[in-house]
Amino acid sequence: xxxxxxxxxxxxxxxxxxxxxxxGELPIEVLNGKPGYINFLxxxxxxxxxxxxxxxxxFPAATSFKHVSPAGAAVGAPLSDTLKKIYWVDxxxxxxxxxxxxxxxxGADRMSSFGDFIALSDVCDVPTANMIxxxxxxxxIAPGYEPEALEIxxxxxxxxxxxxxxxxxxxxxxxxxxxxxxxxxxxxxNELVVDDMLFANVPTAxxxxxxxxxxxxxxxxxxxxxTQSNSVCFAKEGQAIGIGAGQQSRIHCTRLAGSKADNWWLxxxxxxxxxxxxxxxxxxxxxxxIDLYIGEDYMDVVADGKWQAxxxxxxxxxxAEEKRAWISHNTDVALGSDAFFPFSDNIxxxxxxxxxxxxxxxxxIRDDLVIKACDDHGIYMAFTxxxxxxx
Length: 391
Hints:
By secondary structure, the protein is of the alpha/beta class. It contains 14 helices and 15 strands. The protein folds into 3 domains: 3-166, Cytidine Deaminase, domain 2; 175-266 and 327-383, Cytidine Deaminase, domain 2 (3-Layer(aba) Sandwich), CATH 3.40.140.20; 270-317, no CATH class.
C-alpha cells in the first residue's frame, strides 16, 4: 500500500487528506478501524519514542499520546501494590512487563491520557490488551499482536477501535519534509542517540548518578525528544511522572510538569488511597474526583450535597499543609529539559517536587546561577550540550 486516504485532516473542514509514500510502500497495516490524521501523527511519534526507550533501556516500553505529545511514557518495571491501585489495575491479576509499561504510561496523568493513542514497543499480549480494552482510547500501534489480544482489541468502540501494525524494521529517509503555508521545510531527522555520553559533563558539586537515576534521566530525555516544545519532563522509577509540553516560557513548563508530578505523588497518599467511592463510579469519574480532591477546587467533591454522589463516606479535607508535608517525602526525582534553563527559578521549582537529578543542555549566560542553585540543594546536574526541540 503506497497511500491511505483519510476522512479529513486536523479538522473536518480540511479535505482532502491522506498519508502516502513518495517511494516504496507504507510501513504500516491497519488491522482494524479507520485512523485519522491526528491518530497517525500520535501513532508515528509514539512509535519512535517507545522504540528508542526499548533500545536505550532493554525493557518493553509504552507511551500514551494526546495531540502530538506524550501524556506519559514508561518502561516495563514491576508495579508496587500502591501503583497497581492508583492505576486501577489491581484487579487484573498477573501483569506482563509490557502491561506494566502501559499501566505506568497511562497512570502518570490519567486525566490527560483519557482518549489517548497508545504506542507499544513489543507485540501486544493478552494482559496488555485486557488493560487497554477497558480504557477510553482512540487506538494503538505496535509491531504485532497476539491473535487473542487482537480479537480482544477488536471488540472496543463497537468494533471500530483503531489498530495499527508497524514494520519494526522500517527506517525512514535521513531527510524529512513538511509544508507550512505552501512552503516546504526540510531538515535532517533527529537521529541523536540518548546514551551515557550525555551525562559526562557534570558542573555541580554532586557528581553521583546512580543507575536508577540514569535510567530515569534517559527516559525523560527520550520523552522530550517527541514532546512539543518548550518541554520539561519529571521521571521516577522507570516512568515519566509529569510532562510540561508546548509552553512558551520554560518556567511554566517546569511548573506544569512539577504540578503533575505532585499530583502523581499525592494520589499515593493515605488520604487519597482511603477514599471510599460508590460502587457505580467508574475509573474516569474517580480520576476526575481525585483530581478535584487534591486540587484547589476540592469543595466541588467534598461539600455537602456533592460528596454523596461520588463517595460512600464524606472525605476529610486534604489541607494545604498536609499536601505540602506529603509532597516533601517525594525524593530522587529526575528532571530533563529540552533546552537550557535560563534562570535558577526552574531549579527551585523542581526541588520542591523532589528533584535530585537534572539533565539539560546548558549554555545559558546564567549557568553559574543555575549551578549554584543546584549546589545549594545538593542536586546532581549534567550539561548534555544538546537541544531537543520538537515541532
